[in-house]
């Protein structure tokens, strides 16, 4: 079994493609101190009146996550996130668990920033907490070749 470490993993962002013929530039999200990515389904109650216990079925897919960033105003990825938070625009998030390369696995999803906060302290670096939610379907297609 191959063990993956965080340094192998790549999180990148880009502007959302405006047509199928355009490929926006992707930027790594730099200065990251932590992140989460959650894919789940809602729980739908299907309990009948005579059932002894609650019963559930998996419902609609959902995807959301967070970034914890050490602020770097020179980082293009952080700048895209900042602009999307300020303007309410979508970004495309690329999650590449095994790094970047032809035919390697990739998760791609358009996202919206829902929370964008700055954290600080006495004699501490400024950090940013960012929460996001899916703004479209999650695509688990492998990275393109060439």
- DSSP, total strands: 7
Q: How much beta, percentage-wise? A: 35-45%
Distance between the termini: 28 Å
Rg over CA atoms, rounded to whole Å, is 18 Å
Low-confidence stretches: none
Shape annotation: globular
Strand order of the largest sheet: 2-1-5-6-7-4-3
Largest sheet, in brief, is: 7 strands, antiparallel
Indicate the mean pLDDT.
90
Write the H/E string, N to C: EEEEHEEE
- What share of the residues lie within helices? under 10%
Q: Which structural class is indicated by helix and strand composition?
A: mainly beta
- Number of helical segments? 1
Overview of this protein structure:
This protein is mainly beta. 8% of the residues lie in helices and 44% in strands. The chain contains 1 helix and 7 strands, in the order ββββαβββ. The protein has a 7-stranded antiparallel β-sheet, with helices on one face. The longest helix is centred in the middle third of the chain and has 12 residues, at 76-87. The protein is globular, with a radius of gyration of 18 Å.
